[in-house]
């Protein structure tokens, strides 16, 4: 890329500064308030418009980067267009509490538009076979990955700083992996996303003065998922399609573990609940800071494992996420058993209309919020 690295570095600093300024503005103006209700544990109405700060700062950064690197302009425009669609859907949910059907339709539309503008995964690391052409299966896997990760990231946005902090680590790691794998455009977009999250984080952690909201969690989730695919495409597979799933293994494991244990107990897997592992940690007495520290540490370790994975033959890369899943089983099962002994899983479930893709909007209120 022709621009000097120092110019892009300055843009990154500006993005973080803009993100911080917009976050403070959202707090002062109390934009899109999350009012306590019968299930709420936060005492005061709290703005949930953090996505405005994150998306706004990232978009400004993409414009500046496109001006500095003209060859980046088309990629920036396409990414920003889809992100705007996702942000609008998330903001509508924050304002009007969309039904799960409408949210799922919006996610499918975003995934479909991504495939139209960027294409689907063409090759992928298959166990024992190596990097193989995916053909039509690549379209299905791309949609499944984008929609699935958007929901997973949304589900995990329930503790101050956790989604933003782990998203920041993953975006920064993806930027580094993409840069070293010959995918500079992905590296730039991911780095700017990390800078935007860095600017937002002080308003969300350790004290929850500003929540990310669906407009934030959906947008960040989409961008991380989409950039994982773009990195694999741009680098011709050098940036493994398994890099982000491995880096975010703690989040993905929590969601999968929770869906499985609820299905085994014949609970409605789409109903709002507070039975994610991170929520059980909080209900067992862990503070927001402690819970976020645990998941940030797990994400940092998973990110390191993802970098190691990229050195392996594509046919053996699956061993790394599989190994992480076994480790997380060893960590998660005792927590689950302790919660069951404490009766946390026996309490009556409170169904809510905002189930499915908006699970975190209701479920996150079931656990203690940081003091206002």
From TrEMBL:
Residues 351-372 are annotated as: Disordered. Mg(2+) binds at residues 154, 214. The keyword tRNA processing does not apply. Its cofactor is Mg(2+). It is a multi-pass membrane protein. One of its GO terms (cellular component) is plasma membrane. InterPro entries: Glycosyl_transferase_4 (IPR000715). Keywords: Cell membrane, Magnesium, Membrane, Metal-binding, Transferase, Transmembrane, Transmembrane helix. The chain crosses the membrane at residues 6-27, 48-69, 75-92, 104-121, 127-147, 159-180, 186-203, 215-232, 238-260, 293-312, 318-337. Pfam families: Glycos_transf_4. One of its GO terms (biological process) is cell wall macromolecule biosynthetic process. It is found in: Cell membrane. Residues 351-364 have a biased composition (Low complexity). GO terms for molecular function: metal ion binding; phosphotransferase activity, for other substituted phosphate groups. PANTHER family: PHOSPHO-N-ACETYLMURAMOYL-PENTAPEPTIDE-TRANSFERASE (PTHR22926), UNDECAPRENYL-PHOSPHATE ALPHA-N-ACETYLGLUCOSAMINYL 1-PHOSPHATE TRANSFERASE (PTHR22926:SF3). This is UDP-GlcNAc:undecaprenyl-phosphate GlcNAc-1-phosphate transferase. The lineage of its organism: Bacteria, Pseudomonadati, Pseudomonadota, Alphaproteobacteria, Parvularculales.
